[in-house]
């Protein structure tokens, strides 16, 4: 066991550039994402875990493990202050069950505020339990689902991994279930023994991703998810409607006069039928955006086999300016799936396009936006027509006056691209 444990920890340390005494590291990867990783190997008690003995419970750190024992049916908990920051995190730990495997629930508690408020992921022999205690009321998201026989073990590795709204729960390297990311109310992480039991905890790893020291940093290191196109100098942007826009904080990343800017934003209108969303900057540091310099195709006069191109920004999270690039194609049909007149079918591969990226004709008219969800539905690439964008504008408290410039009709493709690029932005979430 000691040999196996050393191999596991060697892997962790090499993967994260952690050396000997360093239990916590903060890094920024090649995409500019900030990560904080904390590792507890129980070689000492610098983190001040509870270690004491009583008639009801006992705990101690010895020989590189944290021993926890409950002598009563009510069980016991042990935790330290290790906060979960944001909604993008990982918790992983290995628990060796010495006694109580069949009769007790044993596992992780996190976001622990007090005994009336915490989240949990527990196992009881061949079943698992996921949920939270909120204001003294317990709610099970999973209440005793059975897992496969080959996962039954006294040595269990628990893992919780989130990516914003999605949360994966794994046991011994096998994904058990994916649920919505839970709300975190407290700042402690630890262990729960429900019943008479004895365990040895071999290690604990807590990773916070997309974190920041201040609100400004949080905005910069947020997660890019969509392209969007500016329609008004007051900071209105059109993009594809996806669930992330509704449940997360939004950021607009823009190249303004050669300088990368980040602004808080909000969803102000949506068209669920045609998959369009309107976002507006809502940031005290924002004054005005460069006026759009492209034509807007307000009537669906585009012909089949007509040339078009998609202009897009890569979904990279870094503090460096990003270059827009073209993906050329043709209009293959003026109708979408099941003869839906709201969409064009286009020739580009779905793998080459970014959700929300605008589609332009040769004369600089924006004719639509690439819609990934609709394209993934039947494997054909679709763009929602800009003719239907009028539905969003009707619900705004102020009127958008989009001026169609006439000076683009004779421009070359390179000239058109240069004039349009300042209107293209990234939409990010945190």
Strand content: over 45%
The helix content is 10-25%
Described by the principal axes of the CA atoms, the overall outline is: elongated
Tally of strands: 29
Query: SS-based structural class?
Result: mainly beta
Q: What does it look like?
A:
- It is a single chain.
- This protein is mainly β and 430 residues long.
- The chain has helices at 2-16, 215-220, 244-247, 372-378, 390-393, 413-420, and strands at 24-28, 34-40, 52-53, 57-62, 65-70, 76-81, 89-99, 105-114, 117-124, 127-134, 137-146, 155-163, 166-171, 174-180, 188-194, 197-209, 223-232, 236-240, 250-256, 259-271, 276-281, 295-296, 307-312, 325-333, 343-346, 358-361, 365-370, 382-385, 424-429.
Q: Topology of this protein?
A:
Blueprint: H1 2-16, E1 24-28, E2 34-40, E3 52-53, E4 57-62, E5 65-70, E6 76-81, E7 89-99, E8 105-114, E9 117-124, E10 127-134, E11 137-146, E12 155-163, E13 166-171, E14 174-180, E15 188-194, E16 197-209, H2 215-220, E17 223-232, E18 236-240, H3 244-247, E19 250-256, E20 259-271, E21 276-281, E22 295-296, E23 307-312, E24 325-333, E25 343-346, E26 358-361, E27 365-370, H4 372-378, E28 382-385, H5 390-393, H6 413-420, E29 424-429
Parallel strand pairs: 22-27
Antiparallel strand pairs: 1-2, 2-16, 3-4, 4-5, 5-16, 6-15, 7-12, 7-16, 8-9, 8-15, 9-10, 10-11, 12-13, 13-14, 17-18, 17-29, 18-21, 19-20, 19-29, 20-21, 23-24, 23-26, 24-25, 25-28, 26-27, 27-28
